[in-house]
Amino acid sequence: MAGVAAIVGGGVIGGGWAARFLLNGWDVRVFDPDPEAERKIGEVLANARRSLPGLSDAPLPPEGRLSFHGRLDEAVGGAVWVQESVPERLELKRKVYGEIQAACDPGAVIGSSTSGFRPSQLQQGAARPGQIVVTHPFNPVYLLPLVELVTTEANDPEVISRAKTALEAMGMFPLHLRREIEAHVADRFLEAVWREALWLVKDGIATTEEVDEAIRMGFGIRWAQMGLFETYRVAGGEAGMRHFMAQFGPALQWPWTRLMDVPEFTDDLVDMIAEQSDAQSGAYSIRELERIRDDNLVGMMRALKANDWGAGAVLNAQDARLKAGTDLARRIDEVEDLSRPILTFAQAVPLDWTDYNGHMTESRYLDAFARATDRFMELIGCDADYIASGGSYFTAESHIRHLDEALAGDRIAVRTQMLLGQGKKLHLFHRMCRGEDLIATGEHFLLHVSLETRRPCAPRAEIEANMARIARAQAGLGYPEGAGASIRAPK
Ligand SMILES: NC(=O)C1=CN([C@@H]2O[C@H](COP(=O)(O)OP(=O)(O)OC[C@H]3O[C@@H](n4cnc5c(N)ncnc54)[C@H](O)[C@@H]3O)[C@@H](O)[C@H]2O)C=CC1
Ligand SMILES: C[N+](C)(C)CC(=O)CC(=O)[O-]
Predict the structure, then answer these.
(1) Is 429 a pocket residue for ligand 2 (Cβ < 6 Å)?
(2) Can you tell me the mean pLDDT for 296-305?
(3) CA 182, 186, 189, 190 torsion: positive or negative?
(4) Which domains, ranges and CATH numbers included, belong to the chain?
(5) DSSP notation for 89-113
(6) Mutation test residue for ligand 1: of 12, 99, 117, 293, the one with most atoms within 8 Å of CB
(7) What is the distance in A from the centroid of ligand 1 to the CA of 34?
(8) What is the reported pTM?
(9) pLDDT grade, residue 259 (50/70/90)?
(10) Above pLDDT 70, what percent of the chain?
(11) How much is the ipTM here?
C-alpha cells in the first residue's frame, strides 16, 4: 500500500522513518529546517540500505523517490502518511500539527514519534484531532519492528486500521495500546532501567561499561527473544509462574531498586558519565557504532527468523506477503514464459552473507544457487509432499564462476536454464544477476534418488512430463557461455 509519506523532522528518528518508508517502496518527502538534514539522512539511509533489504528472504519493492523540501506545505500536500518527529516539546509539536493540518489531506494519517506524550495531549487544539495518532518507533526505525500505536476516542477506527495495515506492510509490528499513558509501555521500562543505571554509576557501584556488560552478557539477550513474563515463567522451573512469584515476589519489597528516586544531573554526574562513555566507546564514530549495532541486530533477527519466533516471526510474515506479490513461481503453470531462463531466486544480500573482504562470501553463492535449485525442483513437481513420499534429487556435481562482487543490500536474482532433464538426470545452469549485471553462474548436475534405497532411480511420470515441457520450451536458448567449463590453467 505504498504511497507518499512526508517526514516532518528528519533527525535520528525521522531519518530512520525515511529509510523504512523508502526501502518499502514509498516516495518520501522530508521537511526539516536543519541545513545538515540531507547529509544526515543520506548517511542513515546508507546504513539502512546495507542492513534492511537483506533481512528479508524475498525482494523488497523497488525503492521509492526521496526529496527534500524547504516548505512544510510542499512536503505534506498529497501525502497519505505524515510522520512527525520534531523534538520532544509539546508546544512545538502542537504548532507543527497546526501547520501540517493546514496543508495536508484530511484523510492522511498523522503519526507522532513522541516517546512520552499521550495522543490526547497532541490532539488538544488541533483542527482535526481524529487524524493524529501516536506511532512510537524504536531506534533504528528501519530495523526494529515495534511501533507503539496509541489512539484515543477521537480516532476513527478506519484511521487506526489504515495505520496498522501500512505499518505491517512495511514489516513493522504495531502494538496497539489498550489506553493512553505517559511514555506508553516500552519507555516505562527503559526509564526505570535508565534511572537505576544512573544511580549505579553515580554511587560508584559500576561504570557505564560494567552496566552495559551486565545487560548484554545476560538478560539483554534473553529479553530479545522471550520478553519478561515468558522468561520468568521459565525461570520458575516446572512449577512455573506461580512458583516464580512466590519465590521472588517478596524481594520486590526489599531495597533492590531506587525506582522514582532520580539522581540530579549535576555537572559532576554528567561529566563522569560522559567521560566513562568516551572511554568505553569513543574509539568508534556514531556511524561506526550504528553499523556495529545493525550487524548484530540483523544476525540476531535472522536467527529468530530461523526459529519463526518473536521479531523473527514478524519478518517471516512480511516475507510471505512480499513473496505473494513477486513473479517467483511455485508451479510450472505459474511461470510467465517457459522459453526463457526461469526466475528461481530473488532477494537482497544479507549483512551476515558478507565476509572480511566486504562482499558476499563464496559459500553464500552456493547457498543462493541451492535455493534456486530447490525452487526449480518444486516447479517440476518435486515439492515437500513428493519428497515426503520418498523421491528427491541429490546434487552430484557443482561448478560456480564468480564474475563480479555483490555487496550487502545488493538486490540479486537467479534465473535458471535446464540443460538436461531426462530420466533420473537433471542438469541446471543458474545465472545470478545484480540488476542487468551477470555476477556469477552456477552449474549443477543432479540425480533423482529414492530416499529409501538412497540409490538413483527414475522420477514419477509427472516430473518427467514437466521436464520435457521445459526442455521443449527452452530448446531455442542454446548452450550458455561458461557452461561445461572447468578451471583453466593460468596463461
Ligand atoms: N532518539 C530516540 O531514541 C527516539 C526518539 N523518539 C522521538 O522522536 C522525536 C524526535 O526525536 P529525535 O529524532 O531523537 O530528535 P533529533 O533532535 O535527532 O531530531 C529532531 C529534528 O527535528 C527538526 N526540527 C526541529 N523543529 C522542526 C520543525 N518545526 N519542523 C520540522 N523539523 C523540525 C530538527 O532540525 C531535527 O533534525 C521525539 O518526539 C522523540 O521523543 C522516539 C523514539 C526513539
Ligand atoms: C530515549 N527514548 C525515550 C527517546 C527512547 C525511545 O523513545 C525509544 C527507543 O528507541 O529506545
Answers:
(1) no
(2) 93
(3) negative
(4) 4-183 (3.40.50.720), 187-283 (1.10.1040.10), 327-477 (3.10.129.10)
(5) -HHHHHHHHHHHHHHS-TTSEEEE-
(6) 12
(7) 11
(8) 0.87
(9) low
(10) 99
(11) 0.97
